[in-house]
Structure formats: C-alpha cells, structure tokens
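Polyphosphate kinase
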Amino acid sequence: MKTLSRDLSWLRFNARVLQEAQSPSVPLLERLKFLAIFSSNLDEFFKVRVATLRRLSKLKKKTRAKLGESPKRQLREVLAEVFRQQQEFGATFREQLLPALNDQHIHLLSAAELSGTQYEWTARYFEDNVRDLLSPVVLDDTLHHLFLKDQTVYLTFFLSQPRSKSKKAEAERVLVMELPTKRHGGRFVRLPDEGEERYVLFLDDVIRVGAAAMFPAYARVEVNAIKLSRDAELDIEEEVSGDLMEKIRSSLGKRETGFPARLLFDPAMPKETLRAIKQKTGIGDEELVEGSRYHNFRDFFGFPTFDEARFQYPPRPALPHPSLPRTGSLLDAIGQRDHLLHPPYQSFDYVTRVLSEAAADPRVSAISITLYRVASKSAVVKALLKAAKHGKQVTVVVELKARFDEESNLFWAEKLQRAGAQVIFTPPELKVHSKLLLIARRESDETTRRYAYFSTGNFNESTSEVYTDHGLFTADERLTREAAGVFDYLIDQSVVPALEHLLVAPFGLRPGLNALIDYEIKQAKKGHEAYILLKLNAVQDEGMIAKLYAASQAGVRVELIVRGIGCLVPGQAGFSENIQQRGLVDRYLEHSRVYVFAHGGTEKVYVASADWMTRNLDRRVEVAFPIFDEALRAEVRHLLDFQRNDNVKARDFENNFIQPEAEGKPVRAQEATYAWLKSLKKRR
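Tokens:
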C-alpha cells in the first residue's frame, strides 16, 4: 500500500501557500502575507516535526527498528525538500515581490541602496529611536554560555581592523544582540516619501547603518542575522499523575529552553562569527540551516499598508444570518428549528450572543462548553464568567495541551475557577478537540430543555474571521441528549455513553466511519451507486487510508478535498483508481470537516471537528454530528459542491492548479460561497 509520508505531505501544503505568494492575481500585500504564513508554518514545522524526527533518530537502533521507518532517512528527505522550498521562497521574494513592489512605487531598500540623504536620515533615526534599545553581548572568554531565545532574530557583529592599538580595540571581536522588534514597535521603518515614491527599511538595516557609530574603534563592522527554533514538544504525555496545571507550567518553561531544532544563519556571515556562535551555544552542524540576510518573514504581517485598498483583499463584511434574529432571543429561535452558521462568511457574533443571553437568562440553569483555543480578549469566556457570577452551573472543559495556546488556556482556566466555574482537565494522554456548547433552560411548562451548538471551529472570535467553519445550533433532543453524554464522559472517562447519532472519538468515531464505508462497499458490489465525499484538513491514518483503498477497489467513487496533510496517493493501479484528491488555498484558511456518504440513496451528511489522523481517531475527544434537517443538509452539500468544482484556487495531488474545462466558467469556491450565502437573506 503506497502512501506519502506525513511530513513530506505537509511540506506540499506549505508549497501551496507559497504558490499564493507567487500568484499575480493575489493583491500585492496579501502576497507578502502569504510569505509570512509560509515562514510561520515552517518555523512551527521545525519546532515540532523536525525536532521530533531528530529525537527519534537518536534512539537506540533496536528501538528505531520498531518504528517501521528510518527517522534518519525521513529527516534527510524532509531537510532536502525544505532546502528546495527555501530556495524557491527566496527567489519569490527577490525576483517577484520586490520588483512588483517597485512597480507600485514601494521600495524595500537595503542599507547599501540608500541615497546619501536617506543614509543621513537613517543615521539620525538610529540615534534618536533605536540606539538606546540595543544591548550587545560580547562573545569572549568571560562568557561561558550564550542563550538564544526561541523564534527571535539576533544580529551578530564581527569587528576587525582596529583603528588603534589601544587595549579596548582587540584584533577581532564578535558580539550578539537581540533585534528589538517589539520595543521598537515593529520590524519596518518608513523613510520620507519622495514624490510618489515610498521607501521602507528593515529595522535590521537601520542598525547596520548605525553600527559604525556604535563601534568607532573598528574600521570593519559586519552585521549578520541568526534565528533559533527550539523543540516545542512538551512531552507531558509521559506524565500520567500529579497536578496537570503544574506540569503545563513546568513544561512551558522547558519549551523556552528546549533543544535547538534549527539555527538559521546568513550565508554571508564571517566564519569567525559562526564559529563563535557554535562554541558559545553548543549548537552542532546538524542544527545549522543556511538562510538569507533576513529572518522571521512572519514579520511581514506588519508591513506598511500605505492606506492603499487595492493592495489588499476587498472588504468582505460578515453576513447576517438568514434565519437567526438580529435582535431578540436566539434561544427561542433555536428552539423552533435548526440553524447552520458559516463563519467567517456569517458573523460569529451569534455564538457570543447566545452565550451572553444564556448568562443573563434567569431560566438558564447550566452551561457546559469545551474550550480548545480562545481569543486573547475572549468574549466567550467573559460570558461564561458572567454566567458563573449569576449563580449558574458552568462547566468548562479546558484543553491545556492545545499546542502554543497552553499559556493562554491556563490563564483563562484559572480565571474561570476563581469565578466559581467547574473547570475540567482531561488526562494528559487525551486531548479534547471537539467544539461543543450545551445550555439547559427551564421552559414555560416547567420542563428543562437543552440547546446545543456543535462546530468544526474553536470558540475564538479572532480565528473566526479567517477560518472557514460550520456550526449547528440545535435543540433536537436526539443530539442534545447525546451531547450531554459526551460531557459526562469528559468528566469521567469510565462512563462511555451509549450513542446512536453522534460519532465520538476515541471510542466511536473510527468504528462508525468503518461501518459507513463498509456499507458503501456493499452497495458498490451490488451494482448500486456508491460514493464518499470528504472535506478534511488531513488524511494520515493508515487504517482509514486502507479502508478508502478498499472502497476504491470495490468501485466506490471517492472524492477528497484535503487542505493540508494527505498521505493517501490517488490514482494507483489496484488501489486508488476511483479516488480523486484536491486541495484548496485561498483568502481564508479552510478548516471545516464534512463527511458525505451516498448510503443507498438516503445520503448521510456529517460535519465534524476531526481529521482522519490517528491522533484524532484514537487519542482525542472528537465529535462528528449528523445534519438531520433536509434543507440544511442540502445547504452543506451545495457549499461542498463549490469546493468540488473550484477551478481557480484548487490544486491536484501534485499541486498543479485545476484548470476550467474548455469554455467552462471559472469557479472560485470562497467567492461563490460568500455570494450564495449573501443571496439567502433574499430567499428566506
């Protein structure tokens, strides 16, 4: 069974991100943002995946043999592809984006390109605004160890050719200094305009201009950049007892001092400087990665916009929902019928509104919610705090192990505890990735009714503006009763709920999916129509891939829309002739998961929090929920069809853009989705 490795597949995804930076059809400053996304993604890849492969490669030979694949070989393949992509990244920046900026009268200059007047202005700016922010460290015999912060740009200074023989001017000196991006207020400095020409300078180059004044005793001052990425894995899965919150705190501290995963360095750096850095940090050759003159391209998120709307995507205000009221009770509206919400096309405010309504409603007795990633200034948590202060029973399952959000989640968990909420932490070996909200309210007939919100996306107002997700508001007892069972399980994992409608990992999702695929296989063997349509962020689990191969062999038509990791290889003789796969990268990050099965003509549609990765199916609490309402089921299918027919932003398995058929119309799924959802308010 042929599959593509998880890491190489992920790198293919990042290559699709780079394609957006290369596309002339993307607004100019948005192309820079895609470079920033590519850079940020690659940083995380080194901190997590490359660091993991390095750790695995250091295991004893017998232990490595149990892994099935050689981590050393995988690491070589991964680093070779990373090097190729970085070369392409650099060429994209230098040969495409810089000329495109110049064509629009925007000039990102280097220190060497400054005119005499600009050089003088920059030297004054350095003295007035930057010099006092700098704290160079001398790498000499008095310094025993140099600690480099994670994901931070440092400038190195190589000083030589002393102007005098004084003791202060040693023959050669190497210094290191953190680039003060945060204290300066950003990475870029705007120089004075000259007519319609606009000029921008890296903060790095401002310091290069001022370097000679900093070290007047030396005739030669060479300034270069380095950046270190550290191993980000917390390894708390090995800890199965004790206070989880304390373990998280301790592990976060270890992350800041974790093993080096990659040291990016300027290839023009003097060998004396690199030798001193290696000696003082203890970093070996295997962690060294040749970069460029500038690091941390994610800082391009803060590149000046010049107040030019044409350089960015046109505004796309979130749409009002066609069936949820703009004012008045949302709970009453949910009690009458189901409603689907589609952020960011439709406003996420409906979620925060329903929480605020529940917090203030004297008839609401209890609120239960799962929190995986929340915004830094979370309206969701503020509503929960308000509910707790009003005496309601508030149960919050906080996932402390959400990578890179542990500190934020820890902060909110403690705040909720102080407010009187019941905060639940699951065991270290189990992550809660499901997105559930359950509200209990006493009705006019004195009965208690439950209201639920199931979602593919986090309860996060910030990411809701850029992540595409689906959420279901429902009071359908078939679903709300089972949601209550999921919360019971989260409180006590020894109580596995009996579920008929929800597919819940780690105990019911895999067998449920296997049963649904087996049904399609049986239908195909009988000569009936059989198909499976899947929209996922990742397909990696070997068991599910084998099942899809078996479905293909039986004649089941399988269509995959995979944003990120896709280890299944379509079109293989004897395995996957009936499988097609595409990926979509556009303005918004595709984040929703949808499973569709023909099911003998009575199509089943599930929306889910889970990708088809082993961790999602076996080690996380995930929920796939069916769409019962016929009109809403058709709505999900209609939106999915936009993705299936995209011929503008969709790529095939090999990252080739899918082209419109002869005389066919271009279909851009995200634009079509917005236009169609906008039309709904006129039709309902």
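The first strand starts at residue 106 and ends at 109.
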